[in-house]
Each structure stands twice: as structure tokens, then as C-alpha cells.
Amino acid sequence: MVTLSEVARRARVTAATVSNVLRNREKVRPETAERVLQAIAELGYRPNLNARALAQGRSSTLALMLSNIANPFYPEFVLAAERAARKAGHFLMVCNTDDDAQIGRAYLNQIAGTFADGVLVMNTDIAMNELCISAMQNGPILLAMWEHPEKPPALPCVAVDFARAGALAAQHLLELGHRNIAMLTGDGCGGLQDARSDGFRAKLLEEGVDLATLAQLQVRDSIDSGYAACQQLFAQHPRVTAIFATNDLLAIGAIQALVSMGCAVPDDVSVIGITDIQLAHQMRPALTTVAIQTEAVAELSIRSLIRLIDEPDKQPPMVLGPPPELVTRMSTGPRRRRARG
Amino acid sequence: MVTLSEVARRARVTAATVSNVLRNREKVRPETAERVLQAIAELGYRPNLNARALAQGRSSTLALMLSNIANPFYPEFVLAAERAARKAGHFLMVCNTDDDAQIGRAYLNQIAGTFADGVLVMNTDIAMNELCISAMQNGPILLAMWEHPEKPPALPCVAVDFARAGALAAQHLLELGHRNIAMLTGDGCGGLQDARSDGFRAKLLEEGVDLATLAQLQVRDSIDSGYAACQQLFAQHPRVTAIFATNDLLAIGAIQALVSMGCAVPDDVSVIGITDIQLAHQMRPALTTVAIQTEAVAELSIRSLIRLIDEPDKQPPMVLGPPPELVTRMSTGPRRRRARG
DNA sequence: TTGAAAGCGCTAACAA
DNA sequence: TTGTTAGCGCTTTCAA
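Above: the input entities. Below: the C-alpha cells describing the complete assembly.
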């Protein structure tokens, strides 16, 4: 392995000068720099990032903790986060906790403030939240996708107004004339997505809908469980004309179930989700949903984390992401008399 | 930050002893170890992984390079790879190259043999392949999901017999009586998936099918382009009764297109893919596909990479993953007289 | 079984 | 503008 001092020797300078060339080029005379650069090229020198990290006390690595990357929402977030990190000169380490607090704790313990200059934690449940708070002393931690802007957590966070997302979904269904509505609330990979369902319920109430008529189900966060929940739902509440799911996976699962049961979407039943994952527009019928601008939030989160690392004073405790927006596609339509039994 | 020597001082031993306690516990007397452990607990000591990495010359970090994590195949691989890495005491750094050789080169240059003890590279095209070969001198690199077991690359790899996957798909369609077949070949995130299509073609030939009747299209690797390609296909070849796609995304896109065009799947047209991503069984109709055991291959790849790092002599240049298997679901059925124009 | 000491490769004062 | 020097926190011979 070629080291800094070998480069220095070859360029007939000292290690300090090489180091200077490698970062602030100002302090070194152009001819010297040239010589150093050439030596670097000739020797094929590559800096040892571990040594640099140790000397600098920072590793240029950010960690992203998430519960399960197989949930299609995460890859989209990761993609944007990795780009943002890369552009800012950081690496991104993905830490998958498998929904296991033990693993989350281990990761947090090992990397916060050591391997990673900062940690971005997504969709925390209460246990995870506690862990993060106690891990804050080790290094900067930021919560991404915090769902309750009205009650900031005890850690820095990037929040998204998910209650508003729920309200937008409610408004859309109401405007289409639906009154027999069912709601599927996902577990959000650890933390119940209740900001979304609360927002939805509040809007219904505001518009004078009797919440007693609202069929409610709590389910795991996946297409499969959306499918199962929808079947169960219609066995119990056959007169439902619209389904609100707190995320797109559930909504997609519901649509699949409806199709299997011979229900037309949206003619018999409308379905709306939240998030606007890729799949939402790739399905047929394409899913109506409330977009939360995953990319923008990911970028904002990375930028905020970096600021938290570099200038902690300048980073506000809570940053609010862009507002959710309704994306109308083909899975919702006006209420019609149901043709089936 | 609490350091090793602070722990040592508190336990009234030297740093070397603490270090010994932290790894090979044999060499130290139980009572001493006990004192050290207590000091660690009292001080809340956490080892500095950068320092350890520098001293040991290894970072316990593995890097996974892939072209675009938003492709649903990758998260499934990442999930399994991360688990395997974690269980083996390694971290996993995800490097997304955005299909950009520049970014790939930069990553390889920066991390191979430095930040990462080893690098797993997926789905390389030729450019990437060259890069990897020249980066091998920096540190262990292993190609995952090599598609051509019959021609091993110039690097260590874990291969999967994708030609066989194509052949299995062909056999299935032939057994169902299909003769008017179309083939959608994906670009595989950089490297054309031609092992799959070659295997498919070879099987057809073997069974005496005239390849001239095989409509062939090359497309980008996504649901959207599968959709578009399928529409285009039927405009030109309306008599096709079965579609083979070299991966599930294309197959899923094709099904969506068929549904939109009013074609029943599988009654009018059968569709088969390769991979068996999660989505394949979550769709309606559920997709018939050839499973390549992503999880097992990911695990095998991580294990192989670790062996390549620890005992390079014991790691064979090419390891063959489990054989692909046909998974029959609802998107394929016997050929029937087509009812449409 | 424990301690002493050197060093991993780089950075960052400070001095020249 | 360049060199000297002293670490960063840990591991690892080697000696005691």
C-alpha cells in the first residue's frame, strides 16, 4: 500500500505538504503541488480513509437506520439520500434493523459518533426513540420522516405533515361523494401511522361525517396484509364504497383483493393511499394517493444532518418538509350505487 | 469521548490489557477482566472503530456496489446481504452508482481496501468490469450475480445459471403449447441480460421452434418500459400468445399493458418472467416466473467475499449459486385460440 | 498474566 | 511556503 510519506519522499517534500496539496491547495506553491500531484499519479496513491478519519475525528460517513429495506418506500428514500450524501462528500452506510430493537441498539452504539459522523433514523417507534435519545450523547442523530410536526420529539428531526396527508385523502373521498368509508392503518414499520389516520378522521368529523360509520382496521405494512385486510373488511362491511389506506402498499394490496373479488376499481370501490411510491403509478388502475415528496425529504434530511454535524447551532430542532399533495389517478371515482350483493 | 486508556487507568491496568479483554479473553486473569469490564460499563466506553480499523488494517466493513437501488430486485438482495454481513460482524456500505461509470470508479477508488475490507459488485457491464479488474490490486473484489457461469470473468465471482433460467421459462411455455412467442430482453442495469435470452432461444431451437417467429425487443429495465414495450409489441405482432421477459419488472409491466388493452392474462396471453421478486406473488394475476433464490445468492456472496478477504487461497475463482427454479403461478396457461382481432 | 513501546497513515498546530 | 512535531485511539509484538 502506497502511503503519504512515500509520496512525500518521491516528491521531495514532507508529509505535511502532501497533505496540504490534498486539501487546501492555497498554501502550497504551484510547482511543488505539481510535483506532488505527479508523484501521487505515478505511485497510484490513494489516501487511507481510516487514518484520515482517525486524525480528523470524522469519517465522512453518514449512517441511515431503517427497519426493513424491502419495504419499497425505503429504497426510494435511500436512493435520494445516497445521492445527496455523495454530492456532499459523504458515504452512506445502510443499517437495516429488521424491526429489531436489539439490532438498532447495537448499531447505534457501535457507529454513532465513531464510524458515522451522524445517523439518520427513520420511522422510529417508542422503543427506538428512547434508544436514539440516549445515543445522542455519542454523536449527532436526526429523525427523518417524523410524522407529528405538532409535537416535536426530544431529538432534532425532519418532519412531514402526515395529518394533512390524511386530511387531503379524506377531502378527496368526500368530494367524490363517499360516505361508507373504510380505513386501513399501517404499523409503519414499528410506529403506528396514526398521524395519518388522525388527520383523516378529523377531516371527516369536520365535514359532519359520523365516525361510527368508519370501518377501521390496523394491519402490518405490506401488500400482502393490505390484501388480507381488504378481504376481511368486505366480509364484515360489504357496503363500503371507498378505502383509505395510510400507505400505498396497503392500498395496492386492497386493490388486488378487490379485483380478485370481482369488484371494479374505482367503479365499485375507490381506493386511495399515501406516499406515492413508484409502484403507485405503475399499477393498473394507477393509484390515487397523497404524495409526500420522498426525494425532497431525503435530500432535506441529509442536508439537515450534515448541518447538525458541522454547525449544530444553526440547525433548528425541527425542520418541516414540503407539504403533501394529492395526486389523482385512476383508483378513485365518484360514488355509485353498488351492483353487487 | 471515553478512550481505551481512560478505561485502563480506572481498572488499574494498561491499555494492552483492556484491548486483550476486548478480544481474546483467554490471556487475562478473570479478576482483572472483571475489573476492566466494570470500568468499561461505568465509563460507558465504546471503542473507536476508526482507530481500530487503522491499527488492524481492516475496518469490518463491506461495500456493496449496485447501479440503482430503486430497482426492486436490489433491496431484496441488500436485505439478505446486510443480514449476512451483520451476522459475520461486518457493516455494509451501500454504494449506488446511478448507472454512472464515473461514480462507480470513484467509489472503487476510494473504498476498496481502505474503508471497505472487500467490495461486492453487482450486475457489471463491460466498463464496470474493466474498472473492477484494475481495482483488484487495491483490495478484494467479488462479482455477485454473474450471469455467465460458462465463461468466468477475470475476477472472483458468484455465478447463477441464468441461461438455465431462460431455458426453464421456454420449456414451460412450450409445454403449454405456445408457439407464437415474444421475448423482452432487459438491459440489466448496465449489462444486457443476454444469458437469459440466449438460454431461452437455445431451448426453443432444441424443441424445433423456428426462431424467426420469435418477436424480440430490447428494453430498459423497469415496469414502465415493460408496459410500453408490450404495447408496441402487440401493435406489430398481434398474434403472440405468450411473452417471456428476462426479468419480473418487464413481465409485470407487460401484464399491466395487456390488462389495459383488454387482454386477459393468461387466457389470451401468458406472461413469464425471471427472478421472483416479492412483487411477483403480490400481483394479480400472480406472476409465473423462474426464481433465482435472491436471498441464498446474497448470503453466498457475502460469505464468499469474507472468505476472499480472510483466506484468499480457499476461495475458488467462481462459485455457482443454487439453480433457478420454475415457480408456476397464475400468469401462464395453455395456449387458446385468440378471441380478439 | 501484565506492561512497555512502537506504530497504523494521516492531520494540524507551530516553527522555521 | 515548507518542515517539524506531536498526536488521533487502538493493536500487537516483545519483554518482564
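Note for the figure: Chain B touches chain A through 51 residues (CB under 8 Å).
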